[in-house]
Amino acid sequence: MALFRLWPILRCFVLACLTLTVLASVPDIASGREHVLAVKTDGSLWAWGGNQYGQLGDGTLLDRNKPLRVGNGTYTAIAAGGNSSYAIDGSGKLWAWGDNSYGKLGIGKLIPSVMTPTLVGSGFSAVAAGDFHALALKSDGSVWVWGLNTHDQLGDGSMATRYAPMLSGTGFISSYIAAAGNSSFAIARDGYLYAWGDNEFGQLGDGSNDLQDRRVRIGTGFYTGSAGVHHALATTRSGDLYAWGQGYYGQLGNGDNQDSNVPILTGANFLRVAAGEASSFGIKTNGTLWAWGDNSLGQLGDGTFVSKNQPTLIASGFDLVAAGSRHAVAVQSNGAVWTWGQNDAGQLGDSTAGPRLGPGKIALFLRPETLQASAGATGTLKKLTLSGSIAPLAEDAGSTGVIYAAIVTTSGQVFFRIAKNWVQFTGQAVVAPLKGAPLAATTLDLGVGADMSAYAGGSLYLAYGLGSDGSTAFNSVFSKGTVKLVYTFPTK
Questions:
Q1: pLDDT winner (highest mean) among 3-17, 46-60, 363-377
Q2: Averaged pLDDT score across all residues of the chain
Q3: Same-domain status, 344 and 399
Q4: Residues 248 and 376 in one domain
Q5: What residues contact residue 20 under an 8 Å CB cut-off, 6+ apart?
Q6: Which helix (H) or strand (E) holds 476?
Q7: Do 154 and 185 reside in the same domain of the chain?
């Protein structure tokens, strides 16, 4: 749902309700009702899942059950709310696409939807999205709001729908913003948490259940947080986790199923949190992933359909998490993306149409991997025994491809290992030692007792490329970077 965080890296995360905002060249994820956005470390934007309003930004209305790249731009911040998507590029321009009900895209006109990224404005550094409204933070510290305002979620006291960004407040430099359902949240740089909008279940945390048409101060000392449709989570700098709002499904995580209109202590040592529609997720400082709340469609990832009213350990080794309506997405420290829960629109991104009750890895990595390849040599240059091993990057394992062993001499000549011989490359297609699907970890015989004097001082590389023939694979090796120097031949 929504995430608010005070941190040198801007981030706001909201569900579907859910949106996540980031500002930095780090990988990140955001989830809407049935779709997911992800940014790699290179700034490229990827999307998958439901696309009935064009929220994937590919110019179609076709759902996608595996990640696809959105355009060729690079982005620093993303958000997904309901069936809409938002992204801020490196120059500070804010783009929006998908469902435009009640003007929630902020493009200044009321049209049903937009299927490709459309410019909203410039000078922005963070964005957050609720079901039908959105907030954005400019680099000068001003907060701008637009969309549906029936519950005063825009905080201007008018309840008037806004089709374009309207100034809401100033002085929020280095603050964090969030929008979820019909409520809005912000953490100021001094750590004070503010909330406004719908408060039916006490989700504003101000001690009442009264709608608030202006910002109300909830408390101080908060560092990061996230908001679901009717509940909210927040952590302090020391890692204490607080929750408030609706508790019917156990999403507050305090051991009962009661609502609370004030923050209650739920746990300790939490670094990041994410709130789904009625579920909650958290990552502790040791990288363990925890979940609690509604589990009617397996969205907690614990292998059951049983809801939990206390944090339940799901897995370890994670440092990012996002939550959709009834699905979740998490990223491991190596950049691997895992998904679970409902999958009726392809929101798990695993090329299937079925749900999953536990985390499953998909074919997307948000951080660059290091190719695992090595070689060993025994004997002298005139009688050398060479062997090598290479494992494809996890995102390519199982794909059709070709593995190479290549020697580059000091004069620049290139020789490939073909069958049992080293053959000079002269530009023709290469027949490599291993060809075809699936790519997998492989051990290579590179010569037994061979005279390698002709390659003295040269370099041995192991590499692989995707494709069904040698030339296709050879070209992709260097563009993808799946090549590694594994051995330097001694001089004569």
A1: 46-60
A2: 87
A3: no
A4: no
A5: 3, 11, 12, 13, 14, 28, 29, 30, 31, 37, 78, 79, 80, 274, 322
A6: helix 470-480
A7: yes
Helix (H, G, I), strand (E, B) or coil at 471: helix
Residues 235-276: pLDDT tens digits? 998 999 999 999 999 999 999 999 999 999 999 999 999 999
Alpha-carbon distance values, 23 to 47, 176, 249, 315 (Å)? 18, 11, 33, 27
Neighbours of 2 (CB within 10 A): 38
Q: Which amino acid is at 80?
A: A
In this structure, the number of other CB atoms found within 10 A of the CB of residue 390 comes to: 26
Identify whether 438 is preceded by a cis peptide bond (ω within 30 of 0). Answer: yes
Strands (E), 246-371: 260-267, 270-275, 279-284, 289-293, 308-315, 318-323, 327-332, 336-341, 356-365
Structure tokens, 386: 């060479």
Does 318 share its domain with 269? yes
Query: Torsion-angle region of residue 275: left (phi > 0), alpha (psi -120 to 50) or beta?
Result: beta
Q: What are phi and psi of 91, to 5 degrees?
A: -95, 0
DSSP annotation of 23: B
